[in-house]
Amino acid sequence: MYQPLAEQLRPTTLDEVFGQEHILGEGAVLRRLIDSGNIPNMIFYGPSGTGKTTVANIIAKKTNRTLYQLNATTASTADIKEIVAQLDTFMAPNGVLLYLDEIQSFNKKQQQSLLEHIENGKITLIASTTENPYFYVFNAILSRSTVFEFKQLSKDAVLQAVNRAVGFLQERTGLRADCEVGALEYISSACGGDLRKALNAVEVLFSAGVPNGDSLKISLEDAKTVTQKSAMRADRDGDNHYDLLSALQKSIRGSDPDAACHYLARLLEVGQMQSACRRLMVIAAEDVGLAYPMIIPIVKSCVDMALMLGMPEARIPLGDAAVLMATSPKSNTGHIALDAALADVRKGRTGDFPRHLQNMHADSYTMEREQGYLYPHDFPHSWVRQQYLPNELEGTQYYTYGDNKLEQAAKQYWKAIKGE
User: Fold this and answer.
1) CA 301, CA 58: separation in Å to the nearest integer?
2) Does pTM surpass 0.70?
3) All residues at 6 or more sequence positions from 61 whose CB lies less than 8 Å from its CB, including other chains
4) Burial of 24 (0-12, 13-18, 19+ CB in 10 A)
5) What is the pLDDT of residue 91?
6) How many whole angstroms separate alpha carbon 407 and alpha carbon 409?
7) Domain 20-149 maps to which CATH number in 3.30.1360.20, 3.40.50.300, 2.30.170.40, 2.50.20.10?
8) The domain at 239-326 falls in which architecture?
9) What distance in Å separates the CA atoms of residue 353 and residue 392, rounded to the nearest whole number?
10) Architecture of domain 155-226
11) Phi-psi region of 57 (alpha: psi -120 to 50; beta: other; left: phi over 0)
């Protein structure tokens, strides 16, 4: 029976696990828990191929517990009831460990069905998820569990595992791997921190390779072929998608054009051009804003061009938009002022309109003058002092000028006009 290389090389001890030193290194909390044998209910959170299932298997073996594995994408409440029913028919001296993969696929009712059994200690739950558990896991499960985050593996950690895989396949096939310079490093980098993908690539290269005597050529070109786009995690609705959008916006907000181009490239590479366009338009108003107001129609024009052109030409106006915003002065004063006003409105701080601002439903502004309204255009510089906020909010300040050239110029202009 065929068994994937990643499964054949799955670590059986913590010392064989690559990466995750922050939770599995000497003296780290999770390692100390495993060594003690006192395993609480846990949630393993992190990207695919980072060792969540492996560590659960090691825990079950090390604590001598009966391990049940379910995947929430295909399992049901009936599967959990079946496990519980078996508990009543035989004694598991060291308890049962239930490893529930992709717990975010269970709805609230299904997750609640676990509560009774993890509450009475019949089952120790280790759930894994690639999504943020604080958004996708039921609060009652969270409160009874300890969350451990598994991080994307570094290139060096993956390379160690790749070299181990090559050594294993050399021994199994009797062939010496003749690796072109950079081939294994490319696989280790291009897998995007997913060890399973890296090992699958190595296995494909060995399976597809043509032996030359007792050696097998592994070229850089072949390595690139079997890892095309493998570094791109493209779950449209998952955390990684929104992490990419967040990283793009924060890079532009932080005025780093290189990082902005990197994250925009990753979005475009996985086909998320429309999401990138929407986020770029938000950034124009939210982060550049009043420091350079013309950025808003400029970015809108770049987005319109991109949507008309389609990829690959769309990258040209979008790249211009990203770099222009990253290198522009920044201001969030406009939307911060509105947010402050919204907060007051939602608290009920409104009040009646000043009489002179009310609509008279007249064709001529002369009737408005009869209720005390001063028409600004009748005065020098089209400004006259009068009250606009409701009486209850008179004197409230929502907007503060930003410390950029344009807003400071506007501030000085109005100080001069108002004689402040």
Assistant:
1) 55
2) no
3) 12, 67
4) buried
5) 55
6) 5
7) 3.40.50.300
8) Up-down Bundle (1.20)
9) 10
10) Orthogonal Bundle (1.10)
11) alpha
